[in-house]
Structure formats: structure tokens, C-alpha cells
């Protein structure tokens, strides 16, 4: 190949990475960004004037209008944060925060709650895509590292954050006056919250950056497998701490039995669903978006009613399609097409959901817990990397994708609140405050790590051109 032709060649994807993930977009000039900025300001201005002149419509029309606004605002904001090397997720969240009930109130609480129903579809797509990206060859190659990192991260983060919460309980309003035994029980529950990660943030960043390579693939594999561990640890913790928080009760093995049924049943249903989905895609392969909608809304509700874990079901289904059929790439591309809109709405709604008055009240404690969790995550990653003898790239950057928290964390906090009503809403309020910080800074940190590791499409393209130039 001639030197003149070489710069136009697309960089090859790393071995074992899904084909076609590197597609560097054409660079946008200042005029494009100025146009986006003007359009975003006009959009906010028009809706601000409209909402002040006309009361909020709490019917379907108002919800549809809010959906359209968040989609447009989130997309425009994501283009504006791009020159700052920030992930698109930051733009989606920022647009939601500004439009939400606590800033400009362009989208009210009712609309946010109604739009939040799309979360079930988003989580289904996230789980399907995550399972489909977990190729057997990648898992086999990094099985030792994966097991060691899960063990070290789970134990070290859980123990450290349990101790930090217990030591700092006097700073937490709902825990300051708890008896010693109850304080220990609540601290253990906080340790469970601390080991949760965010598949949605990881998948969102990977979808935007088209990142491939050791950091991207190992982070994805870790986050998806750690969710299974979190489900197990949560059930064990709920059974263990009940006698501490509610004196007079005894530890019940019934919840452990239900856990076994939930996990085995979810894996079985996921395998069946994956085989059925692969057969449909091979024989028909049309209207996949309708199939995803049916799975996201219909199947999720059925699984929840039957007490199976929908996230685990869809992860297994995606894994089966990718590894037991030749439909894996087709599934990944179909999910990416559908998620391109759903992700904007998912994270913009998450931004609108952020309770800023609560965060302003809880931010010192939330910052303490969030910073400590990030620090211990880094320490655990270094220890795990040394034990697993990981390459230098993983030792340096693997921890950055493990800071984000989102839907799974909030879901577990709601489960804990229902299991222990005596804690009141204080526990969940503190979780919301910590998730808000991790949701904002975690994706930024992960994208920064992928850029520095040279695994994003843009950075890989730059590296390819630099290599060509150096050979001239």
C-alpha cells in the first residue's frame, strides 16, 4: 500500500474485538458547535417562555412534548461537550438537570416519572448488548484476571466502605442515633451499595466511543459479571443483618433459597430466550425494534412478577446469541440502532431526576463516601492487577470504568428500603446523593481512560496516522 493511501485506511480492530466498532467521525468545526449552541439556547428559551405562559400539561401530550424536548436538548448538549473531550452521557445528564424540576422546571415531576418508564427498555437493551459483547474467547483469555479482580474488588470495597460508614455514622442524620447493633447492620448494607457498578454508563460510553481493546473489554466483562455477585451478596446481606436492625427477628434461610431459585431460573430463561431470539433473527430478522420493545416492557414485567432477575435474563440471552449462533454482530448493531435514541432519554431523565436540594443537603457526606469508594476501587484494582499479572495498560486504567453507579444501585437501595422500613427514606436519600456524584464524574473518568489508552475510535485513528507519519 502506498504512503499516500495509507492515511485513509481505517485502523484494524484489535484481535478478539467485535468487528466494525472503529468508525471515527469526521471532525466538527467551530461553526458546527456554534450552531448547536444557538439551537440549544433557542430551544430552552422557547420552552421556558411557553411553560411560563401555559400551565404544564399532565396528560399524554405533555409527556410526549417533554420526551421530544429531552431528546433534542440532550443531543445538542452532547455535541457541545464533545470539544471538551467529555462523554456524550455528560451532555445528556446536563440537559436533564437544567430542564428538570429543580432548575428551569421545563419538565415537571409528573413528566419525569412518566418518562422514567423507558428505563425498563433501556436496561433491557443494555443487558442484551452487554451479554452479546461478552465473547467466550475474551472471557477465556482473561478468566484469571476477571475472577481475581471480582474477588479483590468485592471484598476490599465492601469491607472498607462498611467500616467508613460505621466510623462516620455521626455525620449521617438517620444513622447518628442508632444502637450499636443496628448501626453495624446499616453499615453492612452500605457496603453492599458500594460494590454496585453501572452497566448502563459503561455501555453508553462504549456505544459512543466505539472503543475496543483490553481496558474496554475487561471493564465490560467485569461490570456484567459483578452484577451477578451483587445480586448474591445483596440477598445474603438482607438475611444476615435483619436480626441486627430489627431485634427479636432471626436469620432466615428462606431468602437464600429464593436467591438460588432466582439465579438458576433466570439463567435457564435467558438461555431459552437467547436461542429463540437467535432463531428469529436467522429466519426472519425483521422489525427487531418491535421485538426489543416487547422484551423491554412486556417480558420485564412478566419476569418481575415471577420473581426472576430481568437483567440477568437479558445478559444470558445476549451471551447465548453471540456465542452459540452467528447472529451476534447483527444483534449488537440492532441494539445500537435502537439504543441511540433510548440512551439519550435514559440519561437525560436521570439528570432530571437528580434531587438538587437533597444533594445540596447531603453533599459533604456523599462526597466523603464517593471519594473513599473511588480511592479503594483504585487500590483494589492495583492489587488485583498485581495478583493477576495484568499488562501495564490494565494496571493503570482498568479501575476508571468502575466508579459509575446508576439504575442498579438505586434499585438495590429501594429493595433495602422496602425490607427495612424502619430506616425511613434517609438511607435511600443518601444513596441518591452518592449516585448523583458518581453518575456525573464516573463516565467522564472512564472516557478519559479510554482516550489515554488509545482505545476510542478517534484516538485509535490518531494513533494510526501517527504511525504512518513516523514511517515516512
From TrEMBL:
Membrane-spanning parts: 31-49, 61-80, 92-112, 118-134, 146-168, 174-195, 215-238, 258-281, 288-304, 310-326, 338-356, 362-381, 393-414, 426-446
Gene Ontology terms: biological process: proton transmembrane transport
Subcellular location: Membrane
Pfam family, one: Na_H_Exchanger
CC terms in the record's Gene Ontology section: membrane
Membrane-protein topology: Multi-pass membrane protein
Keyword Protein biosynthesis belongs to the record: no
Annotated Low complexity bias: 1-19
Keyword field: Membrane, Transmembrane, Transmembrane helix
Region (Disordered): 1-26
Domain Cation/H+ exchanger transmembrane residues, every copy: 71-399
GO MF annotation terms: antiporter activity
UniProt xrefs under PANTHER family: CATION_H+ EXCHANGER DOMAIN-CONTAINING PROTEIN, NA(+)/H(+) ANTIPORTER-RELATED
Identification of the protein by name: Sodium/hydrogen exchanger family protein
Naturally occurring in which organism (per UniProt): Sorangium cellulosum (Polyangium cellulosum)
